[in-house]
């Protein structure tokens, strides 16, 4: 009877209290839609953070459809959800997904070519196709709705312009003026070209479209400079169909701080670290001298080993293993006691650490996995994707960087060198995500390789 009466809430230990609060965040609600609880959760989203949830609406045939639901969550503002139909487009989202799969399939074929000239020609062609696909995501699929991915703009000029425009649009025949939607639209003024504004007006059916176009055009012109300098962070929550695409590389997000998470609940769980684990790297920052590395553990990447061996061995405070498999205990210690875990080898090195053990750890280290498909998610049946990166998040890793698909060793090594050298030498306060994005230009193949690295978690910086 005494055992049955025990609950997590009865314990005063900080770790148990932390687990209790995590249980509250992740537990299923008692009713299908608990509006009050959801509103309370929205207020817990960190300041200057935008969460965008993108979901592909399935067709009746249980195949991926061509309509995207995009929901934007920002603290202090009501949620905004838009339906983005793409079936009428020259290249709908289902065709883009098929093209992505075809590019990955052709990668495997080209990589087996023995003629160097044919190999490079094949890779360059695939790089051009990936570049075109990324542009289609922004220009065709998102269109004017890419403003929803913009971080909140706190400029008083936007608020004043929004109030003025709202009244003017009401007078021009827009009977359903939505202040929140207008504020988001104006907050992305630096994105909005005349064709995008025309698309927005067409979608909302103004009775006086020409007048509405002139009003919005004038407002965005006045705000372009002030909105371009807005700072903040974007968290993407992508469903099983859309998560494989390189959204972070679309032009409007290239200079923005962007990470991925599986759900709003994971974002809220990171908020507890400030209270229960204030010493974590997410709060205090990353000390680059507290680094553990694994280099070429399968002993079959001699070029990669040669590029990094002396560098890693001579870095102050760095410890690690080269050309041999690390013991599970070493990885566990690195994840819980070090600030940075760098893996340079095949895949994500998942078989060096038992998944069940990983989930039970309290990870402190930022994890950098430079192998093939190291943060790719496998989709089976109707279930959402699964992969080792989700286990790292469940263990509390502040941030996990890895590749969405297979990459060639020499090209991803160029990225790795550029990223590590630029970030680690940038000094105190240097944000990892800035250098993740900038280093995409280092490989010769800036899309088939440069677009592969993405980050899960939240922003971290050097201590």
Describe this structure as you would to a colleague.
- The protein has 18 helices and 11 strands.
- The model has no long low-confidence stretch (mean pLDDT 91).
- By secondary structure, the chain is of the alpha/beta class.
- α6 packs antiparallel against α9, α13 packs parallel to α17 and α17 packs across α18.
- Among the domains are: 76 residues; 182 residues, Rossmann fold, CATH 3.40.50.
- The strands form 2 sheets. The protein has a 6-stranded mixed sheet with strand order 7-6-8-9-10-11, with helices on both faces. The protein has a 5-stranded mixed sheet with strand order 3-2-1-4-5, with no helix packed on it.
- The radius of gyration is 24 Å and the shape is globular.
- The relative contact order is 0.10.
- 44% of the residues lie in helices and 14% in strands.
- Pfam families: Separin_C (PF03568).
């Amino acid at each position: 009877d005494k055992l049955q009466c025990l609950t997590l809430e009865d314990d005063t230990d900080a770790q148990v209290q932390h687990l209790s609060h995590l249980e509250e965040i992740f537990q299923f609600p008692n009713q299908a839609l608990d509006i009050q609880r959801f509103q309370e959760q929205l207020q817990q989203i960190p300041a200057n953070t935008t969460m965008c949830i993108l979901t592909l609406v399935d067709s009746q045939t249980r195949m991926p459809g061509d309509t995207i639901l995009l929901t934007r969550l920002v603290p202090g503002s009501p949620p905004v959800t838009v339906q983005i139909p793409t079936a009428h487009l020259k290249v709908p989202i289902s065709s883009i997904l098929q093209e992505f799969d075809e590019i990955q399939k052709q990668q495997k074929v080209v990589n087996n070519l023995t003629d160097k000239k044919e190999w490079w020609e094949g890779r360059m062609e695939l790089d051009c196709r990936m570049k075109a696909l990324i542009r289609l995501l922004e220009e065709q699929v998102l269109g004017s709705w890419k403003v929803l991915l913009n971080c909140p703009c706190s400029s008083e000029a936007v608020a004043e312009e929004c109030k003025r425009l709202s009244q003017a649009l009401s007078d021009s025949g827009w009977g359903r003026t939505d202040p929140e939607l207008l504020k988001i639209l104006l907050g992305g003024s630096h994105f909005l070209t005349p064709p995008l504004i025309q698309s927005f007006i067409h979608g909302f059916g103004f009775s006086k479209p020409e007048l509405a176009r002139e009003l919005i055009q004038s407002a965005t012109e006045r705000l372009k400079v002030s909105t371009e300098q807005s700072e903040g962070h974007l968290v993407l929550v992508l469903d099983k169909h859309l998560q494989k695409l390189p959204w972070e590389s679309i032009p409007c997000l290239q200079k923005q701080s962007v990470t991925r998470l599986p759900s709003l609940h994971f974002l809220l769980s990171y908020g507890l670290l400030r209270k229960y684990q204030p010493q974590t790297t997410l709060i205090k920052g990353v000390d680059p001298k507290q680094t553990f590395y694994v280099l070429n553990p399968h002993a079959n990447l001699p070029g990669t080993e040669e590029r990094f061996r002396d560098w890693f061995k001579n870095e102050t405070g760095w410890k690690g293993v080269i050309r041999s498999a690390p013991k599970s205990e070493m990885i566990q210690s690195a994840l819980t006691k070090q600030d940075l875990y760098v893996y340079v080898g095949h895949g994500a090195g998942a078989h060096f650490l038992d998944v069940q053990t990983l989930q039970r750890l309290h990870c402190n280290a930022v994890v950098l996995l430079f192998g093939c498909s190291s943060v790719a998610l496998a989709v089976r049946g109707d279930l959402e994707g699964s992969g080792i990166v989700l286990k790292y998040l469940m263990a509390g890793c502040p941030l996990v960087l890895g590749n969405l698909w297979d990459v060639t060793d020499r090209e991803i090594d160029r990225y790795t060198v550029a990223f590590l050298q630029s970030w680690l030498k940038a000094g105190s306060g240097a944000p990892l995500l800035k250098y993740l994005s900038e280093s995409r230009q280092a490989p010769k193949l800036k899309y088939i390789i440069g677009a592969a690295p993405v980050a899960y978690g939240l922003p971290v910086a050097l201590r």
